[in-house]
Write a structure and sequence with these properties.
By secondary structure, this protein is an alpha/beta fold. The chain has 9 helices and 8 strands.
Length: 222
């Protein structure tokens, strides 16, 4: 259980770009859907900007379409491949298990909060053997923003103003700020330092080995 010595009573972690590197799977599935509907495919490096934001917003940006039925069809085609092989085209950042173990040992409850559909997120967490670190995995359906996910967790009393949200993209920090949580940006994912700094997070960490600082009161106001 968390103690009064812990600066945070709960820590939420983004998944893609924070716990694992999903570029291969996400990029391949984006191209699979784009090709099916006659759009040109892109090199994976050009699709990296779509790691983090909700999937429907990524297809809107890539295709320029505002037709909701078409966007939903693209999402469905993406998920066709993602649920089969795409979720497994994913690499765990090597230092993450040790960082999570340190936070768990400090007695801070943790969970995953991702824009990815919940069942896919569960499959990835289980694949990497991380399930025991997390109380739950909170995923989203199309049209739900991460700030809304955290707002629901606040309404349920699961997270409070003493909780933290850890993520690699500005959308994670925006969600934290809108709900009064401590924002923690990480640089090993897909957001730049400038993108993260623009949202004024409490911390910006360069390596996963710094994450255990979230259990250290000395770093609370760093």
């Amino acid at each position: 259980m968390p103690t009064s010595q812990n600066p945070h009573d709960f820590i939420l972690f983004d998944l893609d770009g924070t716990l694992s590197d999903p570029l291969e799977g996400i990029g391949n599935c984006l191209n699979y859907a784009l090709a099916h509907f006659g759009y040109p495919t892109k090199p994976l490096a050009e699709l990296a900007r779509y790691i983090g934001p909700p999937l429907d917003q990524s297809f809107i940006a890539e295709t320029g379409s505002s037709d909701s039925a078409h966007i939903h069809a693209l999402v469905a085609k993406y998920r066709e491949r993602y649920g089969d092989v795409g979720y497994a085209e994913n690499m765990l950042y090597p230092e993450i298990p040790a960082a999570l173990a340190a936070l768990q040992a400090a007695g801070i409850p943790m969970a995953v909060c991702t824009s990815k559909r919940g069942d896919f997120a569960e499959m990835i967490v289980q694949r990497f053997g991380l399930s025991d670190f997390f109380r739950f995995v909170n995923g989203a359906e199309i049209g739900t923003h991460k700030w809304q996910q955290i707002a629901a967790l606040r309404e349920q009393g699961i997270v409070t103003e003493r909780s933290a949200m850890v993520g690699d993209r500005g959308v994670d920090l925006i969600a934290a700020n809108r709900n009064g949580l401590t924002g923690v940006g990480v640089l090993w994912g897909y957001g730049s330092r400038a993108e993260l700094a623009a949202e004024q997070p409490r911390h910006i960490f360069e390596t996963p080995a710094q994450l255990p600082q979230l259990a250290d009161r000395e770093h609370l106001h760093a």
